[in-house]
């Protein structure tokens, strides 16, 4: 479907094969192709521009070693810069607080928030042997709390009993209180989502954050919403202290450009990737794999 970046660049560099150092003009030609590759991978335009500027500075004047073509050289420089930006290592959760450690999961409706909450709970229970309690704070959408309870049963993770009419901050406090009394290690709060970032949603997120003092606040973003994802990330990170991102639907056609946009806009690590609907389909984020996928 897409030409790989190496293929694109071989055309650009055919005419300069054999020269010593990458000149500014050669690099600029190459970077036009890099920019197209990034945009095709759904990296947001301003993010792609800034990235290309930085890599241009880095590439100009680089000596082309004999064993590689200039095109391969540029691909390597771009790939290294991408991996560096996406985070060289996969980022762990930081749950080193007095238990229960609270993880607040935020994002727009439909991003995969509730599913990711259950996936994360299952993972913490099975891989990290944590005792996990989940609670849905979504009182706006009918059946949202029940949806989490259903997923909890599938994942064999406890959910906080539903009390009709209770408000999000009160549910959050009740979850933390129950977790303390019953010796849970981790509480995961699945917060309400809306179709767009709005003031009421942000006010609610802030209120929940101050009631529950989360150790981690993870923004869930659908990787298929490449360009829009930037606005979502801006909206949330302007109002609350995010600690990381979960990128969902990385099993789909997405080429992963949203990962780069998220990293740039939030400045926070991408901690997990959702790779399917099943509750086991959550993986630590691998920058090197995603860089390869973005470059095609
Ligand atoms: P929420 O409104 O943000 O809580 O979204 P949900 O968790 O209800 O997810 C919406 C839909 O996306 C559901 O059908 C999920 O099964 C699906 N979904 C969530 N994460 C992933 C993922 O990583 N890959 C795929 N293919 N589907 C996902």
UniProtKB/TrEMBL annotation:
This protein's record includes keyword Acetylation: no
GO molecular function, one term: 7S RNA binding
Main location: membrane
A GO CC term assigned to this protein in UniProt: signal recognition particle
Domain commentary: Composed of three domains: the N-terminal N domain, which is responsible for interactions with the ribosome, the central G domain, which binds GTP, and the C-terminal M domain, which binds the RNA and the signal sequence of the RNC.
Family recorded in the similarity comment: Belongs to the GTP-binding SRP family. SRP54 subfamily.
Annotated protein name in UniProt: Signal recognition particle protein
GO biological process: SRP-dependent cotranslational protein targeting to membrane
Location of the protein in the cell: Cell inner membrane; Cytoplasm
E.C. no: 3.6.5.4
Catalysis: reaction(s): GTP + H2O = GDP + phosphate + H(+)
The protein's enzyme class: hydrolase
Function according to Swiss-Prot or TrEMBL: Involved in targeting and insertion of nascent membrane proteins into the cytoplasmic membrane. Binds to the hydrophobic signal sequence of the ribosome-nascent chain (RNC) as it emerges from the ribosomes. The SRP-RNC complex is then targeted to the cytoplasmic membrane where it interacts with the SRP receptor FtsY. Interaction with FtsY leads to the transfer of the RNC complex to the Sec translocase for insertion into the membrane, the hydrolysis of GTP by both Ffh and FtsY, and the dissociation of the SRP-FtsY complex into the individual components.
Domain of life from the UniProt record: Bacteria
Keywords: Cytoplasm, GTP-binding, Hydrolase, Nucleotide-binding, Ribonucleoprotein, RNA-binding, Signal recognition particle
Subunit text: Part of the signal recognition particle protein translocation system, which is composed of SRP and FtsY. SRP is a ribonucleoprotein composed of Ffh and a 4.5S RNA molecule.
Membrane-topology annotation of the record: Peripheral membrane protein
Domain SRP54-type proteins GTP-binding positions: 269-282
Binding site for GTP: 107-114, 190-194, 248-251
């Amino acid at each position: 479907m897409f030409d790989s970046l190496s293929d694109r660049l071989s055309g650009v560099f055919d005419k300069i094969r054999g020269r010593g150092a990458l000149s500014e003009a050669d690099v600029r030609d190459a970077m036009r192709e890099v920019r197209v590759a990034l945009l095709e991978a759904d990296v947001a335009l301003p993010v792609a521009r800034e990235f290309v500027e930085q890599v241009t500075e880095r590439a100009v004047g680089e000596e082309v070693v004999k064993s590689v073509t200039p095109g391969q050289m540029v691909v390597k420089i771009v790939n290294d810069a991408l991996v560096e930006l996406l985070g060289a290592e996969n980022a762990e959760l930081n749950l080193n607080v007095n238990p229960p450690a609270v993880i607040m999961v935020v994002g727009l409706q439909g991003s995969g928030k509730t599913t990711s909450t259950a996936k994360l709970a299952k993972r913490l229970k099975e891989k990290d042997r944590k005792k996990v309690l989940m609670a849905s704070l979504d009182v706006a959408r009918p059946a949202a709390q029940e949806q989490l309870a259903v997923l909890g049963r599938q994942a064999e993770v406890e959910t906080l009993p539903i009390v009709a009419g209770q408000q999000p901050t009160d549910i959050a406090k009740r979850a933390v209180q129950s977790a303390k009394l019953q010796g849970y290690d981790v509480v995961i709060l699945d917060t309400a989502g809306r179709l767009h970032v709005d003031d009421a949603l942000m006010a609610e997120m802030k209120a929940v954050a101050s009631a529950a003092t989360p150790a981690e606040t993870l923004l869930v973003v659908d990787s298929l919403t490449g360009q829009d994802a930037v606005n979502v990330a801006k909206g949330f990170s302007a109002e609350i202290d995010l600690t990381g991102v979960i990128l969902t639907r990385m099993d789909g056609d997405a080429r992963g450009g949203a990962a780069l946009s998220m990293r740039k806009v939030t400045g926070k690590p991408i901690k997990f990737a959702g790779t399917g609907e099943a509750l086991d389909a959550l993986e630590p984020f691998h920058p090197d794999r995603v860089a390869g996928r973005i470059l095609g």
